[in-house]
Amino acid sequence: MPVDEWETRTLEAALALLCEPRAREHLAEGALEYVRREHALERVAELYVEALELAAGGPRVDDAVLGAVAGAAADVGLDDTHELAARLGEVGLGR
Questions:
Q1: d(Cα 75, Cα 55) in Å, to the nearest integer?
Q2: Does the predicted TM-score (pTM) go above 0.70?
């Protein structure tokens, strides 16, 4: 909430809105959906793994994977690497 000359009136209006049962229901549903989406076990576990990978040398791992992919592309004679680069970008490599 902005801290300005309307702060008190905005806060009063927000509190009044919470006195309305339908508004409370709508806010509660939104809050539950937010928690399910943002704090789902699978999502949080993936974020945790990502953080651990980065802490353990993520950029070096990315470089190693890119090197292996580049070597494989060269081995099979892949000349046009634009599509390969686009797919690598989709998975967060080669940024």
A1: 32
A2: no
Buried b (16+ CB within 10 A) or exposed e, 28-61: eeeeeeeeeeeeeeeeeeeeeeeeeeeeeeeeee
Does the residue 46 lie in any domain? yes
Is 29 found in the same domain as 46? Answer: no
Average of per-residue pLDDT values in the chain: 88
Domain count, the chain: 2
The verdict on 46 and 80 lying in the same domain is yes
Q: If pLDDT is split at 50, 70 and 90, which confidence band does 33 have? A: very high
Residue 48 structural domain: 41-90
Same domain membership, residue 57 and residue 29: no
Among 5-9, 34-38, 85-89, whose mean pLDDT is lowest?
85-89
CA proximity to 50, closest of 36, 61, 37, 34: 61
Distance CA 80, CA 43 (A): 35
